[in-house]
Design brief:
By secondary structure, the protein is an alpha/beta fold. Helices cover about 35% and strands about 15% of the residues. The strands form 2 sheets. A 6-stranded parallel β-sheet has the order 3-2-1-7-8-9, with helices on both faces. A hairpin with a 5-residue loop joins strand 4 and strand 5. The two termini are about 20 Å apart. It binds ligand BV8 and zinc ion. Zinc ion (ZN) binds next to loops.
Length: about 240
């Protein structure tokens, strides 16, 4: 299907949709200058996910893990949402039944104004005490290593879901509910390799949803997509709003 007819089909489906779910990954923030995980400029390139984004890595070397997160906090603090993030805020305003699921921990959807949002892998500006479990926002750049809880002096960790850790059950229940009842699932900028998010397209498809994908490359979800637009999020996502 040529791009223009695929775009028009997706636009029409969005206009007619009674309930919309959007799933985003690192690709939507690439246009804000935040390197993706597995791309050529990949974040993991210098480090390997297994070495850092795991509870074992933190157990073994909390300083290294905090140095990596300080590097990412400093990088992300200078970045702003792009036109794709902003278009999703507009889409949320236009549709009563709308939910945004993001795998990104950069907080750019929240900065752009998205409110109906699940940050299923957590948020890089939130920290959690490994002793008393309290969660709070901490925007220090850098965070003094090793950070201690003000309440119990326990070691603080990023409030982020690492590999081998389960997602928040409330988030998972919300995702399941919206994926089971949506007319359309729009998948933007994710390579579809990390579970459980990589399984969301199949969940929505089985429940009868129309699947749209926006990505410069093909992904494992492309086979499930009814429409797959090859392009960058900041160029394609705003086009979905024009000419309602
Ligand atoms: C879980 C936080 C139950 C870190 C992240 C073996 C042992 C242990 C676990 C597993 C195992 N095998 C499988 C698993 C499960 C594992 C998993 O899926 N592993 C994969 C690697 C096989 N999942 C988990 O562990 C999850 N928990 O399953 O709990 C459990 C419990 C115990 C044991 C087993 C299971 C937890 C997953 C969460 C991990 N945390 N992040 C941090 O960020 O600091 S995941 C990390 O990857 C990021 O959150 C990121 O969002 C996510 C997904 O990556 P993408 O967003 O897709 O980014 P990527 O770079 O890959 O792709 C970018 C895409 O954008 C590309 O397609 C590119 O083409 C496109 N793009 C580029 N430019 C643009 C663009 N698109 C649009 N516009 C552009 N301009
Ligand atoms: Zn504490």
């Amino acid at each position: 299907m040529v791009f223009s007819s695929a775009l028009n089909l997706l636009k029409q489906r969005l206009i007619d949709a009674r309930s919309i779910v959007v799933l985003t990954g690192a690709g939507i923030s690439a246009d804000s200058g935040i390197p993706t995980f597995r791309g050529a400029d990949g974040l993991w390139r210098t480090y390997r996910a297994e070495d850092l984004a795991t509870p074992e890595a933190f157990e073994r070397d909390p300083r290294l893990v905090w140095e990596w997160y300080n590097w990412r906090r400093e990088l992300i603090a200078a970045k702003r949402p792009n036109s794709a993030h902003e278009a999703l805020v507009e889409l949320e305003k236009r549709h009563e039944r709308f939910w945004l699921i993001t795998q990104n921990v950069d907080g750019l959807h929240r900065d752009a104004g998205s409110r109906k949002l699940s940050e299923i892998h957590g948020n890089i500006w939130m920290v959690r005490c490994t002793q008393c479990g309290c969660v709070e926002e901490n925007r220090s750049i850098p965070i003094a290593i090793l950070p201690a809880c003000v309440r119990c002096t326990g070691l603080l960790r990023p409030h982020i879901v690492w590999f081998g850790e389960s997602l928040d059950p409330t988030d998972m229940a919300r995702c399941d509910k919206v994926l089971q009842t949506c007319d359309i699932l729009l998948i933007i900028g994710t390579s579809g390799v990390v579970y459980p998010a990589a399984g969301f397209a199949a969940v929505a498809k089985r429940a009868g949803a129309f699947i749209g994908e926006i990505n410069p490359d093909e992904t494992p979800q492309t086979a499930l997509a009814d429409v797959s637009l090859r392009g960058r999020a900041k160029e394609v996502v705003p086009l979905l709003l024009h000419g309602r």
